[in-house]
Amino acid sequence: MDKKIAESTIYRLSRYYRSLGHLIEMGQDTVSSDDLAEMDGITSAQVRKDLSFFGSFGKRGLGYNTRLLRQQIAEILGLTRSWNLGVVGAGNIGRALCDYQEFKRQNFIIKALFDADPDKIGTDYHGVKVYDYHKMPELIKELNIEIGVIAVPAERAQEVTDKLVESGIKAILNFAPRSIKVPEDVKVRYENMAIEVESLTYYLRERFGK
Amino acid sequence: MDKKIAESTIYRLSRYYRSLGHLIEMGQDTVSSDDLAEMDGITSAQVRKDLSFFGSFGKRGLGYNTRLLRQQIAEILGLTRSWNLGVVGAGNIGRALCDYQEFKRQNFIIKALFDADPDKIGTDYHGVKVYDYHKMPELIKELNIEIGVIAVPAERAQEVTDKLVESGIKAILNFAPRSIKVPEDVKVRYENMAIEVESLTYYLRERFGK
DNA sequence: AATTGTGAACCTCTTCACAGCT
DNA sequence: AGCTGTGAAGAGGTTCACAATT
After folding, report:
1. Sheet containing B58-59, strands listed edge to edge, beginning at the edge strand earlier in sequence
2. Which of A148, A177, B121, B174 could be disulfide-bonded to A164 (CB atoms 3.0-4.6 Å)?
């Protein structure tokens, strides 16, 4: 047992979760794998395979109950409770995240900004306090921070990572444009808008090439 | 010929590109596939396969010249020239992108913000003008905008998409938390920080589950 | 001696197709 | 009759392993 789940399945569950939210808002009570697939631009077999990994949530001949399925996915993804985040780096990205509506909607709560700049320490940004970076390990424990967000320049990414790991953090979202090294039991996700644009320029470039 | 390139390869090229920049800054002239792999946490065979798709850039026994390889990757990804972006939605995300350093570094130039709010139209944010959303089609041509960025609420994402497509845009970066539909020849990339966090909470949740 | 470039083997993810429910 | 759940087939991506080259 315990077949491993595909990373891509997790991402698709998040997509289904949002599509279901939309359907519920529109007053729809049931949905077929075909409809869901159409909404997200994939195949219905993919939708069913993804869901079947976690259980049988549908009714043959009828489809899925939107509210029920959304709730099941919320449980799978751990979205039935709030999560505490700590953002390292009170620069543009760090501050922008404090205003990010989709985090609030999902109960991802930014408990603290950490920065080494004395001018920033002690201030607050839209209700999020800026703390001294050097006191991060204690504060992570005190504030029950579970997810670390790296929003510092590339040069400092590894140093910040090490400090987060020392502080017991097991999940990191890295906005710095550099790969970071972590122990096996720490999960890292990369977020780099420029890389997404580069995957677009690759294709735009192609049109005029050859 | 013309075997299709894997999407994942494109993303890894962007990673190599950044790692090579770092090596060059450190004064390193050559690098092996092993070193590059180590930096990005993948296998050396993967690095060589990725590169060999586009040509033979290395020297057997010696490795790759860092400057040369970085230049080759820049050409593959279309990074040897600047690209003009237009951002739809002058809210938190749209404004944050105007300050995003990694865009500037890569010569991704935000030529315009588009918004329907009369209070915002005519103002400017750190040098980027806010234009009337209704005049977008003309302005996209006038300003030579090649890449559209969607930074509006989910409800408006498809409407904005359609308008971008009508205006001749072939590449879209979508920050709205909703899937969008485009013709086959238009490339879309999704950027949703919450989804990345959800792929982390899935794993965090697991530790306490079962 | 070291390291690339690559066909073949391997593995993982997606799609097919249909039996099984409702 | 309609739609799910899933084993099997197919497609796609990664790793192995080694000949080729410097």
Report:
1. B30-31, B63-65, B58-59
2. A148
